[in-house]
Amino acid sequence: MITVYSDNGSDEVELANDFFRLMVASDLGVASVYSLTVVVSALGCNGEIKRGRELVEEVETIKPNIVTFKSMIDCCVKRWNFEELGLVLELTEKESVSLDLDAYKILIDGFASYGKVEEAEKLVSTMHDKQLKVDTYLYNLIINGLEKAFEIHSVMSSQGVVSNKYTYWGLVNGLCKARKVCEAMRLTEELRLSEFEVDEAMYRTLIEGCYRAGRVDNALEVVAEWLGKDTFLMAKYLKD
C-alpha cells in the first residue's frame, strides 16, 4: 500500500511515484488500481495533472477505474485546466470507464463556475439521456447568473425537478445581469404574493441590479419594500 501526504512537498510525491514504478516493474503483482489512484491523486494535488494522466496511459497492466478518473477530473476543474480535462475525458472513453453521478457533478460545477454554461447544459442533457438523477443543485449552478435562465428553468420544470430559493435567486440574478429589471421585479412580486419568502440575497441582487441599470426609482421601491418587511435587515444593509 502507498500512502502519500502531498502537502508535505513534492519530494514525497516523487518518492511515491518512483516506488509505484518499482512495484509495477517487479512483476510480483503487488501494484494495483488503488496504488495507481493514490499516486495519480498525489500528482494532481501537486499540480502535475498531465503527469498523472500520462502515468495512467503508460501503465497498461493496471486498468484505471472511475475513482482514478474522478481524482483527475476534480484536479482539472479546480484549476480550470480544460485542455487537460478534455484529454482525461478522452481517456475515460478509451478505457471504457463510464462517468458516475459524482463525476458529472464535479464537471458541471467546474464548467458553470468558469462560465462554460453550454458545456454544463450538455452534461445535464447527457445525464437525463442516461437516466441519471439531476437534482435542483445542478440546475441552480447553471441558472445562477445566466441570461437565458428562464429557458433552463423551463427545462428543469419539464423534467420534474423542484425549484428552491437558490433557483429563484438565480433567475432574479440572471434577469438583472441582462438588465431586465422590470421582469426581475415582477418575478419577486409574484413570489411574494405566492407567500414565497423573498430573502436578503434576492433583495440585494434586485437593488444592485436596478442601480446598475440606472433605474434608481425602482431601486428605491425595492428598498422601501425591504424596509417595510424587515427593519433589522435594512439597517444591516445600509451599514454594509
Describe this structure in words.
- The structure is a single chain.
- This protein has 240 residues and is mostly helical.
- It has 3 domains: 1-97; 99-163; 179-240, no CATH class.
- The chain is built from 14 helices and no strands.
- It has helices spanning 10-25, 33-45, 49-58, 66-78, 82-94, 101-114, 117-129, 136-143, 149-158, 165-177, 181-193, 200-212, 216-229, 231-239.
- α3 runs parallel beside α5, α6 (101-114) packs antiparallel against α7 (117-129) and α12 (200-212) runs antiparallel to α13 (216-229).
- The longest helix has 16 residues, at 10-25.
- It starts with 9 loop residues before the first helix and ends with a helix.
- The model is unreliable at 1-7 (pLDDT under 50).
Structural descriptors:
repeat, PPR-containing_protein, mainly alpha, elongated
Secondary-structure topology with pairs:
Elements: H1 10-25, H2 33-45, H3 49-58, H4 66-78, H5 82-94, H6 101-114, H7 117-129, H8 136-143, H9 149-158, H10 165-177, H11 181-193, H12 200-212, H13 216-229, H14 231-239
